What we know:
This protein has 471 residues and is of the alpha/beta class. The chain has helices at residues 3-14, 17-41, 45-61, 63-76, 87-100, 112-117, 119-125, 135-142, 159-168, 178-195, 221-227, 248-260, 295-299, 314-318, 320-325, 336-346, 366-370, 377-391, 401-410, 413-422, 425-428, 431-434, 438-444, 457-466; strands at 80-84, 105-108, 129-132, 198-201, 205-207, 212-217, 231-237, 241-242, 267-271, 285-291. The mean pLDDT is 89.
Amino acid sequence: MAKLEQAIDNHAANLDEETREAVRLASKAKTEKRVNALWTDFDDPNALRKLASQVRQHALDNLPDYLEQAEAAFQKNGVQVHWAEDGDQANAIVLDIMRRRGASKVVKSKSMVSEETELVPFLEKHGMEAVETDLGEYVVQIDGDHPSHIVTPIIHKNRRQVGRSFEREGLGEYTEDPLELTRMARRHLRQKYLDADVGMTGANFVVAESGRIVLVTNEGNARFSMAATKTHIAMVGIEKIIPREQDVPLFLSLLGRSATGQPLTVYTQFIGGPKSASQEEGPEEMHLIFLDNGRSDILASNCKEILRCIRCGACMNVCPVYRQTSGHAYRSVYPGPVGAVLSPLLNKAGFPDLADLPKASSLCGACQEVCPVDIPIPDLLLRLRNKGKQEHAPKTSINTPGLSFWALAATQPAAWKTGLKLGHAMNVVPHALLDVNPSAKSWRSTRELPPFRGGDFRSWLKAHEKKGGAS
Ligand code: SF4
């Protein structure tokens, strides 16, 4: 069994029922809210998705020009622009800025690229205090855990677990009241903002035309991080560019609705540089780090469409594999369908280490249907499976006897029909006999084999058409 399949099976088997239910309910609720928000507010959300997809693809197809335009615009606004080839370079730039500013404490709002570069452990290793200020990310940090969803990092935890973590860290007495837990975190984090020297953020979008970053949060933590500190550092992937200011509303409308079913995320900020001479508060310096970390290679590959992603998380919420396994089973920063494509391509250790990730999909197509920038995720997964097969053929499960047998039957109509007739035998074969094969036993230990109901699709369709049913 491939490494990932094993990891997913183990993870799925070890997820306690409460956690599995929490992930399933939360992702289902978000999916329903998304549908309501999009179809109530717009006549044709799919037309908006197509438009957003075209704008993002246009930006990617002309990325060098837009990056150059963005750099000039940011510099004009007084922003210091840095370029990092990989995560190590990006982290080193942050450390260098902090040392030059005599800083030792940084407050951070949620940013997937800084997860990618493992910034917090890097800064801690160099004697800096780095505090995550997004509530979910803060819980992940104090628990020594990892986010399992790109929008809701602790989708895998419940309020009782959070209550115990806060009590352990001395934030207050144990409670499982969400309001009180939020108050405890707020009291604790407010002081951290006041004590910090540097505020770090990512950016949801970078506008090339104006040299402004657009940031959205539901907790307002990004604005606290910037308002209270003297230095603002934003780290962004080079693909986050959108060409014009007038493109921003389209993406904000789709992002909030796709991520959480909100018409707009609660706080939206447009940051165009350090504080001006007339402003009393705010950072005296702003730095923007553009991170490549493998993105240029993806842009040159046959999977470049994945760079259109605006990190809404909708594909995770709707994915039947993600709902069963939660995010940690993907063993990478980006879980779910987007992660199954992006993670192997961005992986520091190279493609082979995560080459089995694209197989973590039923290819049902739900991910593409919900994607606000219409990324053809199932096609990309197939391209990556093909890449894995070509580059590492002996390790891929397509060569396993089970699939070879299936391929033979599926390409021989007579064998297929005989197989369907024999299928009823499966209902009477004692399961113990199937379990003789260790792989089959492991597979079956987390699944119920449904009874074979028989019949073939063509006969069913003919009968259905005769009855006058829709085809
Ligand atoms: S791939 Fe699409 S649906 Fe998934 S996170 Fe990215 S933008 Fe959202």
